[in-house]
Each structure stands twice: as structure tokens, then as C-alpha cells.
Design brief:
mainly alpha; di-copper center containing domain from catechol oxidase; globular; EC 1.14.18.1; copper; tyrosinase activity; transmembrane
């Protein structure tokens, strides 16, 4: 029965967003630098016959970059994805996907016209069956191959500029682990030389939008492989936690009874194998991670370096971070002061917002606290706690957006580290997404957080009640003011009439109190809001 179910799921898999589309990982596509697959609905590239999209040249941002990466033409990720493709599908309206075969986030229906908002919930608020279903979905993703995407096992030059494609299959969960690795890996400069001060997903303005897209894609992929269109990622609210509350066999795996660095054999995650954790080995070989197994998940929560991360984040840390009015500042990297992004990411002190890379706060604190696979940037997504953690980080980003209501222009348009300007495409996603497109409230992207939802008013009377109560309290004053105003008005009217009778006319030197109609039409009024 299980084998039948898996086979059925393989049949219903549909395209989703990820790394290299399988249909474009071939000599013809790489040499022509074109990735415009046909849409299954009408067989035309990008669904052009159905007005879903068309094959277009990629428009790259020309905005200047920051000084952190002093090279040009040495990394396949520069001006993504132009090294591999310079023509892709540009979708119309609410259509999305590498062939324009999907709906944009927040839309559904045959023509992608139906708006939808789904709710992400606290993992501890899930019922036992909901929690077990989530764990089963994770395990399914780890054991089912991606039908639509492959990963690159060599650089473009190692592929002989496209004439010798180097790609391989990968399971759905590890596809996302690999994407996180690829975005954050070092630049290979040849010989044994690498450049480490580069990251397309961290340490710069794109940190929050990049992980927002990452979770949305991951969430949609789970919906696809399970057929559960209502699935949403749960979050772990770690504020004021005294220890790792999800680190037990009921949730994300407890501690091994004899080896504190491993997971309990009673957890389904104890059998998982990690990938992309040996960055120094890849660098020395001038190679990419090929997604081969590298051992079990390692985790030893709380036994980390206390001088760097003395505790888990507190509610006060989060509230101070939310009070910061600047999204980004200064060099726009991990040295930025008074930056909401840098403080939430964890490179600035959560009590002063002053940069201190020697300490790890908020987001970074959780990674370091886990003291294992999750504590090394490139391979951190191997631990499934990653998605719970980043869902909550995204909710803090959402709170900041709702509190400060920034214009899109608040997100830096230029001089950010490579890949992080507003109009840069995010590495390594195909279809293409710009950083600025996800600097917006989550409800516009089709999801919300349970603890951020405002309770709906039960009726129109509920809406009016507070105003009616205020009116009752000030009603005597309103009546008194009306009576007093009537008396004053009557007295003034009497005085004016008496003066008119006495003078019997108006001197030419005296200007009228009322403006003539033709003059009135020439006056404009301004209201200051």
C-alpha cells in the first residue's frame, strides 16, 4: 500500500520553483542560454498561446554593488542567472513558474484569479494528528526524488561552458538543502584560492526576503508532493525558551542515549543523512557539493560556546529589534549598526543594535545553540528544525513590516553586497524573483501567522460599541456646548443687526466679510494630513 501511495504521488508531482529545471539542464539549453520550456496546457513555450507568458531576454540590474566582492566574471552566481541562461519565461498577470504553469503566491484557480491566505501555526498548537502529519511530510520529502529540478555538480567552466552538462537528481528535501548551500558557498578562484566574504542569502539586506521566498517555495513543494493544498509550515516560538523545546522524540528528535551529538534512534530523523557540510573539502578540490551522503544529523543543543551565545533570545530582545526604524544602514553587511535586518539576523547586539560579530543574537543564536549540523551556515538546512526556526524569524520580519509600513524604496536599490540590491535576482531560484518583490506584507503573498491575526469583529454592533460608550460619557458636555453656542450666536446676531441699522450703509474703505463668488473660485485650499 505504501509503495502504491508513493507511486501515485510521483505521478501527481507538478512543477514548482527551485534550482535548475530538468527540462533546461541539457546541452541545447545551456549553449543557447535559453530556458523557456513549453507549458503542458497548450504545448507552447511559456504558455504563450494561452497568454500566460512569453520567452524574453532577462533584464539585469545595473545598479552599483558594495565593495565586499572585488571581482568580476569569476563566479557563476554573478548577475544570476545570466551565466547559464539569458532568456527565460516572463509570466503575465498572476501566472508564475519556469513555464508559467503555476499561480503566484497567494493566488489559485485555473486562471490564478482566486485570492487565498493560509495560516502558519505554532507547532505546539497543532493536534497530535496534525503534528504527526507534518513529520510524515518531512520524511516523505527526504525520500522522494524531485521530478522537476536537478542540481549542478560542476561550475559552468567545468561544464566546458555548457557543452558538457554536469547535473544530478536529488530528493525534494535535499534540493532545498543544496539551494541554501549554493547561495552561501565560497567563490572558487582556482588553485586552492577561495573568496569567503560572499553570501547571496545572508549578511546583507536580502537575508529576510531570500528566506521568505525559500520557505514559500518549500511550502508549495510539500503541498505538491502530498496533495495537501492546505499545508503550511509550523513555527517554533523560541522567545524566552530555557532549552530546545522541540528537541524530543515527539517532535524533532531527542538526544541519543549514548552519544549526545546524535539524535535518538526513536526519532525518524535519526536515519537522515546530511549533505553539503564539508565546505573546506569542496574548496580544496575547487568543486561543488555533489549532494552525496556525509553522515547523520548532528545536534547537541545547549552545549555550545557560551561566550558567543550565552542564552536563547528573549521577548525583550525581539521587542527592541522591532523598535528599530531603519531596515538597513551603513555598509549594509554584518557590520551595520541600528539596522533591523542586521539585529534580527544576529550580528548586532539585541539590546543596543551595535554590530558585534563576535556575539550571536536572535536568528544566529538559535543556529549556534543547536551545536551541530544547524550551526554551520552552508549545511544548516539539513536539520529540519531549520524550517520551524526560519518561519518564526519570518514572522518577526512580518511584525516589523506591519508596524513600520515601509515603502519599497526603503529596501536598498544600490551599493548593497553582491546579489542584495533591490532589483537583483535571488540566487539560485528559477523562475526568477527579485529581492524587492518580497519586501511586502505576507498576506499579499498568501499567508499569515496565527499569533499575528487580529480577531474579527463579531458584528457591526461590536464595531460601534466603543464609540457609543464614549458618546454616552461626553453627552452632557455636548448638550451644554450646544446650548452655550446657541446663546452666543443669538447675541452676536443681535449686535450685528443693531450696528447695520445705526450706520445705514458700508464704507468703501471697509472690506466685506464674505468673498464674492467669482473670487471664491480662484482660491485653493490645502489640508495637511
Amino acid at each position: 500500500m505504501l509503495l502504491f501511495a508513493l507511486a501515485f504521488l510521483l505521478v501527481i508531482l507538478q512543477p514548482s520553483a527551485g534550482q535548475f529545471p530538468r527540462v533546461c539542464a541539457n546541452v541545447q539549453s545551456l549553449l543557447s542560454k535559453e530556458c523557456c520550456p513549453p507549458w503542458d496546457g497548450d504545448g507552447s513555450p511559456c504558455g504563450e498561446l494561452s497568454s500566460r507568458g512569453s520567452c524574453q531576454n532577462i533584464l539585469l540590474s545595473q545598479a552599483p554593488l558594495g565593495p565586499q566582492f572585488p571581482f568580476s566574471g569569476v563566479d557563476d552566481r554573478e548577475d544570476w542567472p545570466s551565466v547559464f541562461y539569458n532568456r527565460t519565461c516572463r509570466c503575465e498577470g498572476n501566472f508564475m513558474g519556469f513555464s508559467c504553469g503555476e499561480c503566484k503566491f497567494g493566488f489559485s484557480g485555473l486562471n490564478c484569479t482566486e485570492r487565498q491566505v493560509k495560516t502558519r501555526r505554532n507547532i505546539f498548537q497543532l493536534t497530535a494528528s496534525e503534528k504527526n502529519k507534518f513529520l510524515a511530510y518531512l520524511n516523505l520529502a527526504k525520500n522522494i526524488p524531485s521530478q522537476d529540478y536537478v542540481i549542478a555538480t560542476g561550475t559552468y567552466s567545468q561544464m566546458n561552458n555548457g557543452s558538457n552538462p554536469m547535473f544530478r537528481d536529488i530528493n525534494v528535501y535535499d534540493l532545498f538543502v543544496w539551494m541554501h548551500y549554493y547561495a552561501s558557498r565560497d567563490t572558487l578562484l582556482g588553485g586552492s584560492n577561495v573568496w569567503r566574504d560572499i553570501d547571496f542569502a545572508h549578511e546583507a539586506p536580502g537575508f529576510l526576503p531570500w528566506h521568505r521566498v525559500f520557505l514559500l517555495i518549500w511550502e508549495r513543494q510539500i503541498q505538491r508532493i502530498t496533495g495537501d493544498e492546505n499545508f503550511t509550515i509550523p513555527y517554533w516560538d523560541w522567545r524566552d525558551a530555557e532549552d530546545c523545546e522541540v528537541c524530543n522524540d515527539e517532535y524533532m528528535g531527542g538526544r541519543h542515549p549514548t552519544n549526545p551529538n546524535l539524535l535518538s534512534p526513536a526519532s525518524i530523523f535519526s536515519s537522515w543523512q546530511v549533505i553539503c557540510t564539508r565546505s573546506e573539502e569542496y574548496n580544496s578540490q575547487q568543486a561543488l557539493c555533489s549532494a552525496t551522503s556525509e553522515g547523520p544529523i548532528r545536534r547537541n543543543p545547549g552545549n555550545n560556546d557560551k561566550s558567543r551565545t550565552p542564552r536563547l533570545p528573549s521577548s525583550a530582545d525581539v521587542e527592541f529589534c522591532l523598535s528599530l526604524t531603519q531596515y538597513e544602514s551603513g555598509p549594509m553587511d554584518k557590520m551595520a549598526n541600528y539596522s533591523f535586518r542586521n539585529t534580527l539576523e544576529g550580528f548586532a547586539d539585541p539590546q543596543t543594535a551595535i554590530s558585534n560579530p563576535a556575539q550571536s543574537g536572535l536568528h544566529n543564536a538559535l543556529h549556534i545553540y543547536m551545536n551541530g549540523s544547524m550551526s554551520q551556515v552552508q549545511g544548516s538546512a539539513n536539520d529540519p528544525i531549520f524550517v520551524l526556526h526560519h518561519a518564526f524569524v519570518d514572522s518577526i520580519f512580518e511584525r516589523w513590516l506591519r508596524r513600520h509600513r515601509p515603502m519599497l524604496e526603503v529596501y536598498p536599490a544600490a551599493n548593497a553586497p553582491i546579489g542584495h540590491n533591490r532589483e537583483n535576482y535571488m540566487v539560485p531560484f528559477i523562475p526568477l524573483y527579485r529581492n524587492g518583490e518580497f519586501f511586502k506584507p505576507s498576506r499579499e503573498l498568501g499567508y499569515d501567522y496565527e499569533y499575528l491575526q487580529e480577531p474579527a469583529l463579531q458584528s457591526f454592533q461590536d464595531f460601534l460599541t466603543p464609540y457609543l460608550q464614549q458618546a454616552r460619557q461626553i453627552w452632557p458636555w455636548l448638550v451644554g456646548a450646544a446650548v452655550f453656542g446657541g446663546i452666543v450666536s443669538a447675541v452676536l446676531t443681535g449686535l450685528i443687526r443693531a450696528c447695520r441699522k445705526k450706520k445705514g450703509g458700508t464704507s468703501s474703505e471697509i472690506q466685506p466679510l464674505l468673498i464674492e463668488s467669482e473670487d471664491y473660485n480662484n482660491i485653493s485650499y490645502q489640508s495637511n494630513f
